[in-house]
Amino acid sequence: MLALAVAMGTWWSLSVLGVFPRFALPSPGDVYHAFTSTVSTGYLSVTLQQDLVSSVLRVGVAFLGAVLIGTAVGVLMAESRFIFGLIDPFLQFLRPIPPLAFIPLFVVWFGIGELPKVLLILVSTLPVIIINTISGVRGAPRQRVEVAQCLGATRGEILRHVVLPSALPEIFTGMKVGVGVAWSTLVAAELIAAQRGLGWLVEQAGQELQTAIVVVGIIVIGIVGYLMELAIRSLERAVVPWRGKT
Description:
Strand content: under 5%
Shape: elongated
CATH superfamily: MetI-like
CATH class: Mainly Alpha
Number of helices: 10
Largest sheet: none
Radius of gyration: 22 Å
């Protein structure tokens, strides 16, 4: 709370002193007015609530898909050298490519509907989940695996009851990083002929120098992203209660 108070005080002081032009740094009052305006009447005939719902659905579907696919692929890559050698070159090739580079191809391949937007977010998030899953599976304590083998556990039982529980902390770390990547890709995804969404709102308002509305969009994205991370942390505490206690 202290950090938030200091940030708000600094922001208010800079705007009052006129250190930056008003169009470059709107005051907290201007941002609040922009917030109430976008909630009540909307911006370009779209309310902030509609933008929020559209973006949350896109990010939520893409993130859930990335977790499900990435965890499965990561486990397979960690357990099989053949599969690792087959997928890893493509994974390392795709990792440094910025999401914007995929937009022309996705438009040609999938059109301008919701599918390319969701796929763009998924593709940017997937490598993080896969890499953390591989790290978690390979980092499972060897002693636990050997004990399970001595007790007659099959390979599937060892994977299910020993390896995956040991890998969960790394998988959750990947999820927490991945949710940030997903939201950071949102603006790029909503460049694909979007008609609503928080990324679309920021982009359109920026083109018209409506910086107060841009700040509103940025703040809402940050808050929702933070709330999603808190939800993942809560799920982690419920599923991996032993983390940090051993």
